[in-house]
Please model this.
Amino acid sequence: MDHMPVLTSDAAMALVLQRHLPGCREGTWDIEACRVVQTRRRISRRTATFGAPYLGACYQLAAREARSGRRATQWLYGKAYSQGSSEGAYLDAVPDHCVMPRFGAPVMHMPELDLVLWSLPNDPAMDRLPAFLDAAAVRPQLPLGRLYAAAADAVRVAAPQIVRHEPEEHCTARFALHHRGRSDVVFGKSYVGEAWRDARDCLDALWHQACADPRAFLVGRPLGASAPLHAVWQEEVRGRPFAETLTGPGADAVLKILAGALARLHADGPTAGRARLLGEILGDARKWRKKLIQADPRLAPAFDAVLTRLEREAAEPRRRVRIHGDFHADQMMWCNGRIALFDYDNFALGAPARDLADFASQLLCREDRAADWPAVAARLIAHYRAGCAGEPDDAELDWHLRLMLLRKAYSAFVRSGTGWQARAGRALAAAQAGLAALAPSSTRGGA
Model:
């Protein structure tokens, strides 16, 4: 695990990959930039004792062909091992069928970093990804008939652009379509398993709610699904990042619109997922604790203080509603007075306080100082309560906020990167404060 600083550094990985990737090491391609798109760290007895993969990382490379000057983008997915375990993992990973990338190889072994690398669209679990990310192969599955009717045969499909890749789980891509001067954009999301069915149904339900109620969340028009690709299609939504609307003189009006849309979602949102038992929820928190403390025992006192309180005060929710399950500002966009909502993978039955606490915890953990984020979160909660007869009460909201902040502390470890301990520490400090952390900065000593 000594290679973590290199594996999570843009600049260091750019140099390493330039030296080792086929096509780059010979000088045919020059890597101009490498971006560590995301990292997921694992810790367990298997990683420490048996050399199981301790890090998964996605890299986005920008490269230039030396002879022609042509530029290209290449995504890589890496799994880092210890104790030399990558050699056996590499031999097991070599596929029977694969797609050759622009540069590099479909699957590569870098023993000096104990690393196995896949060049997208090759993914160890997503065997449909090569067709999903190929303009010719995906064309018959795209919803061209719904957009162009009889003219669908003349539509040109540009090379898909990856928007987000969660290795071995799902991939979101942007598909640009061109026909006689008209250009459209369709977004698709392909899943490794059957989750595409729930995503399709959630999107349809949200669309019908958005059409019937202008105060509800907006979504891009559903364009159907592709069973062969485990994919869901959706029209593009254009707007500005929602977090940008939470500052300035109009922010309170935006928060009031958000609170109303969330209340409507809770009242009549998609029916998906299930109600998780209280024991399961606390079990998750104990797992977070175990892994986080293995990574840094100094975080134990703060985590344990909050977890003990959660266990002591645990109670079934007053009511269960349809919740989004991953509700935060970066899942939304501001579109001419309405709020577009994204990500349809985590809908479930739960306490409305869960979504409110999720949103508030994300704001409390933001590192930018564009706004007084605690005060913004408090205003959203006040608007929601004003429209919902004062619910949820302080006790329920405080419990869920502390829980979500423990999750943020654990997420800081999972996402790794420089300074993760400081980020986890800040989340734990907020978890200890609970609702008091939502006081305006002026009442918290100008934090």
Observations:
- The chain has 15 helices and 16 strands.
